[in-house]
Amino acid sequence: MTGKTVQNYLGVLLARTHRQMTSLWSTESKPVGLTLDMWVVLGELAEKPGQSMTTLAGALSHNLPTVTKLIDRMVSDNLVYRKPHHKDRRRVLIFPTARGIELYHEASAIADQMEDRLAHHLKSIGKLKSMLAKLTDFQD
């Protein structure tokens, strides 16, 4: 026995942090109306329009059916649109709408404010981000 409580295990700490950050995002971004996943999708599309569902699923760490439902909702909300691939009409690419880009920028300002507040409580937010990025690539 290691003597540490279950609340001190990395997985539990990361899960609790994720829930808290998602809850904070929901509260802070309510005026914009984007979920965290919607913001991530719009960010990916703002950087590189015309991405496949598979690429977006990877960016979100979700499976394809979950991303398909998310994109369906985003299409209904006029945030993104689908367009057949120019060479392979069986493939569909996702593009942001002007409204989607506008809301992405509004939500990004909120995210920047959230990070500024977090940075106030942490000595090195950059180091934390670097360590967490390494964890996302971790595979046994």
Structural class computed from helices and strand pairing: mainly alpha
| Contiguous uncertain segments of 5+ residues | none
Instruction: Tell me the CATH superfamily.
Output: Winged helix-like DNA-binding domain superfamily/Winged helix DNA-binding domain
Fill in the CATH topology.
Arc Repressor Mutant, subunit A
**Which shape, going by the Cα principal axes?**
globular
Cα-to-Cα separation, first versus last residue: 23 Å
CATH class: Mainly Alpha
Q: How much strand? A: 5-15%
The neighbouring-strand order within the major sheet is 1-3-2
Provide the descriptors you would attach to this structure in a database record.
140 residues; mainly alpha; Arc Repressor Mutant, subunit A; 6 helices; 3 strands; 9% strand
Q: What does it look like?
A:
The chain is mostly helical and 140 residues long. The protein has one domain: Winged helix-like DNA-binding domain superfamily/Winged helix DNA-binding domain (Arc Repressor Mutant, subunit A), CATH 1.10.10.10. The chain has helices spanning 10-28, 36-47, 53-60, 64-76, 98-121, 125-136; strands at residues 51-52, 80-84, 92-96. Strands 1-3-2 form a three-stranded antiparallel β-sheet. The protein is globular, with a radius of gyration of 17 Å. The model has no long low-confidence stretch (mean pLDDT 88).
